[in-house]
Structure formats: structure tokens, C-alpha cells
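Can anyone check this?
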Amino acid sequence: MTRLTAGAALCIASVALSGCGIFGDDGYFRDRSDDYQMADSLPPLRMPEGVTPKQQEELYEVPQVSSGDVEPSEFEVPRPQALSVNVGLDRVKIQKLGSRRWVLVSQPPEEVWPQLHYFLRTSGLQLARSDANAGIMETTWLGFRESPETKDKYRLRVESGVQPDTTEIHVRHYSLPKDDPRNEVTWPEQSTSPEREGWMIDEMSTALAAEASGAAASLVAQAIGGGSVKVQLLEPARRDPFLSLDLSMDRAWATVAHAVNSGAYRMHLEDEERRIFYVTFDQDRELTEGEEDGGWFSWGSSDEEDKLAQSASKVTLQQLLGNVDPTTDPALFGGMTGLGGATGADIPGYIVVVRSTPDAVEVRVRDTSGKPLKRARASDLLMAIRQNLI
């Protein structure tokens, strides 16, 4: 059936159906969003003779309103807030990178540590090891009913998050045959059972989310992370500023990719082989995304008016690489292929360069020719990235 024929058939079908009277206020497919206003209450459940009912209270009590007090009317569902309005408000989140999952809590480790102890104790899980200095908890061997032939063990690793006063909880599961005599565990890089790891993450995150924000903190757990900071903005003398990330490269690349496509940033090109992003930055974007009049779907209309993003979206990777002069910083661009040959183009925006060093992952922002920015501007752009990291 051709597209024209299919469209004509659809049109004929819609006309035929509308003629049958199944659409509209009196039809079968009518708008039922206001039907709840005509709902009636059901009598209480009657128990059979000889059964004494337990006294229960109404969980969702419906007030008695006479039909003359309220006129049935149309009700407009309020539009949800923009996503940017709710950023950072959720106390507990489950983060995912590839096959790895972990729990992110918007509280410092010394407050999360006693909450984890309480969760394990109330879940009936006993601890074989609790080392606050290392941020490690290990359960004793336990058994699952569905696999009586194995014994299982969990390890929780607690560490500081990439944002201040946040905590990451990484879970590892390990399983052995029940008759295996080993008690010492050499923890593998991945859990024996991803499903049982996921079970623990889900149960733990639900329990932590239900906890009050709580002022209780563990003095012992204040040593978690050794006072180290995972992300720092460094401004060395006679060098351009950069972000230092104490993360693995795959984690750093993923979180920087999120950061340069959030808030005032827009990412237009990425090249994982060369470890660069092509981005634009406009502070007005953060204001337009959260405007109340625009609502949840206002981003699309504001983006259509984003001349900077429109201009940058026309730039190809070949044009961008050709505009970078590798001689501006041989240490940063020396090993990168495909650079130069067409320098001097007027390309808006910036290049974000991610590099791995023996000690950390470093992130720098340059103009589209590869030259350093003024220190104040570079620091501002890097701080915007810092605030968007997850």
C-alpha cells in the first residue's frame, strides 16, 4: 500500500467511525477525565458472622459534600515544573554508567554511614567487617531461598561524591558454593550476580530515601575518603586553569559529557578518540529553561531562538579539527591527529579537552583554535562544568 493510499484509507476510516457515534461526549471514546466527580462511596466491607474485624482508620478519607455545594466543572491538570527546577532536590538517586550502578545520596558520608548500619541491622544482615576509615562494610555469609546450594556475601563501599556533601555507595555481590571452605574473599571487579547486586541497591536506596535528613553523624566515619576531594578547580601560576578529576577515564568522560550538555552548556560534537567536546555556552539558557510561563515543554521553543546553537550545529568535526592549531600547545594537542590545515575560521564556542595523567583526569577549556582563554573566563566555564557533574 502506498503512502497516499494508506493516508486515504485512514481518512476514510476516521470519517466512517465518526459517523457511527462512538466519538464525542456521548460516544464510547469520550473524554472521561472528569468522571471522578460523579463517583459514589461504597458501603463498608461486612465481615461474616464469627469474625471480629480489626479497627482501622481511613487512609484516604473523602469529605462529605452535598451535590448542591459543588458544580461539576472542567479541571485543568497543572503543567509539571521544568526538569531544571528539580535538579539536586532528590536526596537519593541511583546512578548508572554502562553496567555499573551506584547510589548517590545528597548527604556527607558521616551522616550516611549510621543510616547504612541501621538499614543492614533492620534487614537482618549481620556485618563481618565495618571499617569507617576505608569506608567498607561487609556482611557475613547469607543464603537465598531460591538457591540453597550457594552462600552469598555483600560489600558496601562508601566514598565522597563528585559534588560537595554527597556520598556514593557502591555495592558488590559475591557467591560461592555452599560447601566451599573459603572464608576470605578476593572481591572481583564485577558482582557474581548483577540481579542480586541490583536487589541490594534497590532495597538500600528505598530505605535511605525513607530516612529523615537526620542530624545524626558518625565521628568515626568523618575519615571516609581521607578528606580527599574528587573534583578540584586548579589555577596554577603561568598555566591555564583546569579541573582535576579523581575518577577513572570512562567515569570522567561520561560525567563531563553530561555536564557540557546541561544548564548554560550545549554539546554539538564529541570525539571520544581524541577526547574533545565542541560546546557553546550561553548564560541565558539557564534562565529560559526554568521560566514558569514556558512550562515543561518550553525548551524547544527557546532552543529554536538560540542563534548561537543554530550556528554551532552547522559546524562539522572536520572543520573544527582543521581550525585547531596544534602548535599552540604541543603538550595538549601534540598527539592528536587530523588537526590544522584550515585555521583562522570564525567558529563560535569552545573546545573542552579531557586528558588522563598518572594522578588524575584533567579537563581544560580552549577557544575553537586551541588557544588558552583569559584566566577569569576559563575559571568561570570550568566552574559551570564542575557544578553540572554527576
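Reply from J.R.: I decoded it. The chain is about 25% helix and 20% strand.
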